[in-house]
From TrEMBL:
Gene Ontology CC terms: Golgi apparatus
UniProt feature coiled coil, ranges: none
InterPro entries: UPF0658_Golgi
Annotated source species: Rhizophagus irregularis (strain DAOM 197198w) (Glomus intraradices)
Keyword Transport: no
Lineage of the species this protein comes from: Eukaryota, Fungi, Fungi incertae sedis, Mucoromycota, Glomeromycotina
Keyword Flavoprotein listed: no
The protein's name in its UniProt record: Uncharacterized protein
């Protein structure tokens, strides 16, 4: 008994034909799948290396000495693990994002994907610098580096290959994207014609749907700071009613963001003006929540760790 209907078979065949329509579509589809596998491999090595560093008694003592405090350094590995996990999930999402762009011959999405790929390469460099600067700072502190003689983070073998690989793949994907731009541009022109107004409407439609896809991914990542804020702000004594309000509003806005994305996608498919107006108005509540989230993270002094930015040396 066949579980697929004739319509489903035609739909799958259409997508397969899009993927295999040219050497460039095949290469573009394959390159991000390969990249995902490579990043999982590289990040696994980074995690193992970071675990060995942050759980090394010599580093723990030197870190406490350098910071002049007795706080545990265990949170460093926790944030490192979160960053690596998010990075791997991003690469998996890029596989979907790339295939989806091929299925729909969405050249703007392909250009965005290439930009995200260069961003991935840049982050891999940030990841390298993050650990290297932290360890180098402690090793250069004569008051705290006594136990770190010969301490090596092995960045040339662990981190640098990832940076070089992702940079190379980013350049290759940009070259392939330029070929797809010509291929898809002609295909779309044949489908919608040369009317500039129709082209603008079509382009705006595709951009908006693409942004919804991106926003859904970042909504998933958005859950992480939501949990962190909820766990960190636990002391409501001393009249800190504002903390309760902020957490409640943030939880509401997080759920609302998902509902609004579903509403927007449904509205644009049904060409519902009322739905899009409702989305535009209610989305201001989400924008307000972004501001409150930034305030909360700055206040908790953990913004840099989550967003993978080096604020201290």
């Amino acid at each position: 008994m066949c579980l697929l209907t004739d319509e489903s078979k035609r739909h799958i065949k259409k997508k397969w034909n899009r993927v295999t329509s040219s050497i460039w579509t095949k290469l573009f589809s394959a390159i991000f799948t390969i990249q995902f596998g490579l990043v999982v491999f590289f990040q696994s090595r980074v995690l193992v290396r970071n675990y060995s560093i942050y759980n090394d008694d010599r580093f723990k003592e030197a870190y406490k000495c350098d910071k002049d405090e007795d706080n545990s350094v265990e949170y460093l590995f926790a944030f490192s693990a979160i960053q690596s996990l998010v990075f791997m999930v991003l690469q998996l999402y890029l596989v979907y994002f790339g295939l989806n762009a091929i299925f729909h011959e969405h050249i703007i999405q392909i250009i965005t994907l290439v930009a995200l790929n260069f961003g991935s390469a840049a982050y891999s460099l940030v990841q390298l610098l993050q650990i290297k600067i932290r360890v180098d700072r402690i090793q250069n502190n004569d008051n705290c580096n006594a136990g770190l003689t010969g301490f090596d983070i092995d960045w040339l073998r662990v981190d640098l290959p990832q940076v070089l690989t992702l940079t190379t793949i980013s350049v290759i994907s940009a070259i392939i994207a330029s070929k797809l731009y010509r291929q898809f541009g002609w295909s779309v022109y044949k489908r919608i014609g040369g009317d500039l107004r129709i082209q603008r409407i079509y382009r705006s439609n595709l951009i908006f749907i693409m942004l919804l896809k991106l926003n859904l991914f970042f909504w998933i990542i958005y859950i992480i700071p939501t949990v962190i804020v909820a766990l960190k702000i636990t002391d409501f004594s001393g009249g800190k009613v504002v903390d309760v309000v902020l957490i409640a509003y943030h939880g509401f806005a997080t759920l609302l963001a998902l509902i609004l994305q579903i509403l927007a996608y449904s509205s644009i498919k049904r060409e519902s003006t009322a739905g899009m107006i409702a989305f535009s108005v209610l989305w201001t509540l989400i924008v307000a929540d972004y501001g409150l989230l930034i305030y909360a993270f700055v206040r908790l002094l953990i913004l840099g760790s989550y967003f993978m930015i080096i604020f201290s040396k």
